[in-house]
Design a protein that fits this description.
By secondary structure, the protein is α+β, with helices and mostly antiparallel strands. It is built from 5 helices and 16 strands. GO terms for molecular function: dioxygenase activity.
Length: 309
């Protein structure tokens, strides 16, 4: 049976790119690891934030549309994105969020404590202390490896058909059900990061695409060979899966699961440092070959992003 290690990345729609970059870079302390464009809409940025090396399981990506309508979080989406922070770091994060005027609340589930809050454009986020996962050595804007976000802890998936979504996660993606509590089913993969998924047992009313909602969630494949195996595996389970798409930093396939959530499967390779060095990742606008001839025009259209101290 094939088993994904868990979350590769999560992609969301947000508002102004500078506001987005300041929240994830300056407030949450993630590294801007890639500044490129939406391959289907090159006049829009595609921004990637993660740990210091852009490791799968740490990467959140954004399509920032300044004037787009507000979305509605609901069924067929990732409802909550959960980040893992080191054990003992909650006091730092309580102070950090307060200093940046981010309202948060504290809650518990499955024996763990959470800090829940919204980002600047309405995405629902939460922090949980976890022993699992390596420290994030990207130290900036007052963060250190002792408190910095390690990557994803997991996500809460809002489904139109929860039983079918859970079945897809277990039978197709290889997650294992590990608990049920207060109307949530928890599933887990074998990875140390991005490994926990929760699904409400009750169907969630339809969401609406727009600013402040997650567009899709991507699961991990090891490499190109494993990726082609996943493509066949998904098709053999009755899903209409796309052809392989070259996203420059990974290969991708897509399919809709029965609860209307868009699933992607993405390769861990080649990663984010192959077109710029590890030290300079995220510092320049990187364009896929088909748009390089339009660089001057795109650099004029795309607003500058400033993430200096």
């Amino acid at each position: 049976m094939k088993k994904t290690l868990g979350i590769h990345h999560i992609t969301a729609i947000v508002g102004h790119p500078q506001e987005n970059a300041e929240f994830y870079g300056k407030v949450l302390g993630l590294r801007l690891i890639k500044k490129t464009v939406n391959f289907d809409d090159p006049q829009t940025y595609h921004l990637y934030f993660g740990n210091e090396g852009g490791k799968p399981g740490t990467i959140i990506t954004f399509f920032p549309w300044s004037n787009a309508r507000e979305g509605r979080i609901g069924g067929g989406q990732v409802g909550v994105t959960t980040y893992a922070v080191p054990t003992g770091s909650f006091d730092f994060w309580r102070n950090r969020l307060t200093e940046h005027s981010v309202t948060f609340k504290e809650t518990e589930r499955f024996g763990e404590s959470y800090l829940q809050f919204d980002d600047v454009h309405g995405l629902k986020l939460e922090l949980v202390e976890r022993e699992e996962g390596e420290a994030n050595t990207w130290s900036n804007f007052g963060l250190s490896p002792e408190v910095a976000i390690k990557g994803f802890a997991g996500s809460v998936l809002y489904s139109l058909k929860p039983e079918d979504t859970v079945k897809t996660l277990t039978d197709t993606m290889g997650f294992v059900k590990v608990g049920e509590e207060d109307g949530l089913i928890r599933l887990k993969s074998e990875a140390d990061i991005g490994n926990t998924v929760e699904v409400p047992v009750e169907a969630v009313p339809n969401g609406r695409i727009g600013v402040g909602m997650v567009h899709h969630i991507a699961w991990r494949a090891h490499d190109k060979e494993d990726h082609l195996d996943w493509q066949k595996h998904v098709a053999d389970h009755g899903f209409n899966v796309t052809e392989v798409k070259d996203r420059n930093y990974f290969d991708a396939i897509y399919f809709k699961e029965p609860g209307n959530i868009l699933f992607e499967i993405a390769t861990d390779t080649p990663g984010f440092a192959h077109d710029e060095s590890y030290e300079t990742m995220g510092s320049e606008l990187k364009l896929p070959p088909q748009y390089e001839q339009n660089r001057e025009e795109l650099e004029r259209i795309l607003p500058p992003i400033n993430l200096t101290e």
